[in-house]
Specification:
By secondary structure, the chain is mostly helical. It has 2 domains: 2-171, no CATH class; 186-430, MetI-like fold. Helix content is 73%, strand content 0%. The chain contains 17 helices and no strands. Helix 16 (388-398) runs antiparallel to helix 17. The longest helix is centred in the N-terminal third of the chain and has 39 residues, at 124-162. It comes from Salipaludibacillus aurantiacus. This is Maltose/maltodextrin transport system permease protein. It is found in: Cell membrane. It is a multi-pass membrane protein. Residues 203-423 form the ABC transmembrane type-1 domain.
Length: 436
């Protein structure tokens, strides 16, 4: 007994009879734990909210989860897409319920622990004021979070679930019922020759496209920004305005104009430049190699103004004292660029530059608007200039291979997320301190 009293004194326990474990166990029925803690208003509100949710949603959730397993039972009457949607909504509602249910238990346990240590239970008015003060940020964030769940999470989950079904042109509901096929779509993607060859070719071009186009636009922007920032250059404002113009014009307008300029038969590139100089015409739209070259050139033109604006702002913020100290030490231009200019540029803009790579990895507009992913390639379900995102578009809206498109989308999402995660982690601008 003496040992227990000594332990209570060490932990400053004022009310040892009030047991947090009992409060948590009572909260298995929401609100009872709060009532045990003498927070009757809070307990009544929680009990009413949970009871109302269960009464209103129990039938929908149980039916939805059952339909998620079966995906329908009667062809032409049951639409598997509806069953899948209702099942996903049931999962979201269940996740919400379990989250708040666990928070209810934790709340009762923590309040009981505080009461045990001598905390005075506030009255209803004080409790409401404290809840308002602590919960106000969540009240503002709540509607956006709720909307995000149904605008982003729901479609994403729907796509993920489709990847494990046999939903395609020849097995489309409501005429047919969908079936769960496990990882069959992913296995087919890597074992069937047509799918495997197309996937490897498209993924290879996507990686080349992302790296080459983005790196060139960054390099061009850096070169021009450093050149224009030189004190000897006059009319800086005019030059910077001209360089920003490609960014000011809507991208889709520029792409459509370039698709005409690069046309094999009447495009200005062939008629005014290539043919007079080399007495030949380049098949920009008919040969996959030249289509890819044109796409990279167009993306460099479209992408460099934004990066140029970033670099220009950073360069103007670099103190001239750094360069003066380098001159005193006898550093040449290359050494000043490598040890002062380049580190400053990368440190300040690294996250945005990483986003440029991620954006181009999924840059659907330029691929589709320039040549619709063409030209066609024999033995492939994708065009010669298709990247993963445009291939997915074609599989979905043109070939109606929804299951394969969903499987490729999952792989695409994992690739982008993995690349962005590791690059952001390596970025010095995301660390608390950075040294040059």
């Amino acid at each position: 007994m003496a040992t227990k009293n000594s332990h209570d004194r060490d932990n400053n326990i004022v009310n040892p009879k009030h047991n947090p474990t009992v409060a948590a166990l009572l909260s298995i029925i929401p609100g009872l734990g709060q009532a045990y803690n003498k927070r009757y208003g809070k307990g009544a509100a929680l009990f009413i909210l949970f009871a109302a949710f269960v009464i209103a949603m129990i039938d929908f959730i149980t039916t939805g989860l059952q339909g998620l397993v079966t995906l329908g039972e009667v062809p032409r009457e049951d639409d598997s897409r509806v069953f899948l949607s209702n099942g996903i909504l049931s999962l979201i509602f269940t996740a919400f319920f379990l989250t708040f249910y666990i928070l209810n238990i934790q709340d009762a346990f923590k309040d009981a622990k505080r009461i045990q240590l001598g905390w005075k239970v506030p009255n209803i008015r004080e409790g409401f004021k404290n809840a308002w003060d602590t919960g106000f940020p969540y009240l503002l964030v709540g509607p956006g979070l709720f909307l995000l769940m149904f605008v982003v999470v729901f479609p994403l989950l729907f796509m993920v679930f489709l990847a494990f079904t046999n939903y395609n042109l020849y097995n489309a509901p409501p005429r047919h019922l969908l079936e769960w096929v496990g990882f069959e779509n992913f296995i087919n993607l890597f074992t069937i020759n047509e799918w495997r060859n197309t996937f490897i070719n498209v993924l290879s071009w996507t990686l080349i496209w992302t790296f080459v186009a983005t790196t060139l636009q960054i390099a061009l922007a850096m070169f021009l920004a450093i050149l224009v920032n030189d004190p000897r250059v006059k009319f800086k404002k005019l030059i910077r305005t001209v360089f920003i113009l490609p960014w000011a014009v809507p991208a889709f307008v520029t792409i459509i104009i370039f698709s005409a300029i690069f046309n094999d038969n009447f495009g200005a590139i062939n008629l005014q430049i290539i043919e007079p100089l080399f007495n030949t015409r380049i098949p920009w739209l008919q040969d996959p190699f030249w289509t890819r070259v044109a796409l990279i050139l167009i993306q460099v033109w479209l992408g460099f103004p934004f990066v140029y604006a970033l670099f220009t702002g950073v360069l103007q913020g670099i103190s001239s004292d750094w360069y003066e100290a380098a001159d005193i030490d006898g550093a040449n231009r290359w050494q000043k660029f490598r040890n002062i200019t380049f580190p400053h540029l990368m440190f300040a803009t690294a996250p945005l530059l990483i986003m440029q790579y991620s954006f181009n990895f999924n840059n659907f507009n330029i691929i589709y608007l320039f040549n619709q992913g063409g030209p066609a390639v024999r033995g492939q379900t994708a065009g010669g200039s298709d990247i993963l995102i445009s291939w997915i578009y074609g599989l979905t809206f043109e070939n109606q291979q929804f299951n394969m498109a969903a499987a490729i989308s999952i792989i695409l999402g994992l690739l982008v997320a993995t690349f962005a995660f590791f690059q952001f982690r390596r970025s010095r601008s995301f660390k608390e301190e950075g040294t040059f």
